[in-house]
Amino acid sequence: MHLNASARIFNNATKLRREETLAEKLLWSRLNNRQIEGEKFRRQHPIKKFVLDFYCYKQRLAIELDGRQHLKAEAKFYDKDRTEILEGYSLVILRFSNDEVIGSIEDVVNLIRHQIIELQRKRLS
């Protein structure tokens, strides 16, 4: 069966949800059920041709987790390009390494909380 681009991206998101990393599991345990400033997050959410690790629709906030493969030069170039494209859709992108999430989850959650508070403040002004 030949799938169109939209179907492929949704199938990929479903696959990624089933095969989450330790860092994704850990961060999801802190993002789900509106635990941070009452904001709802989605896991492996498709946006255009990309699948975002975590996404808060209301605040247009994407959180991306990067494994060690993202340290390579070509991956850094791809990530930079991807971030610029996503920012072009008026999204705010936060990036953390898997190691940051696993080793310092409280620091990561606090940075996310701070970003959400800033976005909420901007929406109210």
Mean pLDDT: 86
Query: What strand line-up does the widest sheet have?
Result: 1-2-3-4
Spans of at least 5 consecutive residues whose pLDDT stays below 50 are none
N-to-C order of helices and strands = HHEEEHEHH
Structural class: alpha+beta
Q: What is the C-alpha radius of gyration, as a whole number of Å?
A: 15 Å
Helix content estimate: 40-55%
Residues in β-strands, percent = 15-25%
Anisotropy-based shape: globular
Largest sheet: 4 strands, mixed
Number of helical runs? 5
Span between termini: 50 Å
Give the beta-strand count: 4
Question: Quick summary of this structure?
Answer:
With 125 residues, the protein is an alpha+beta fold.
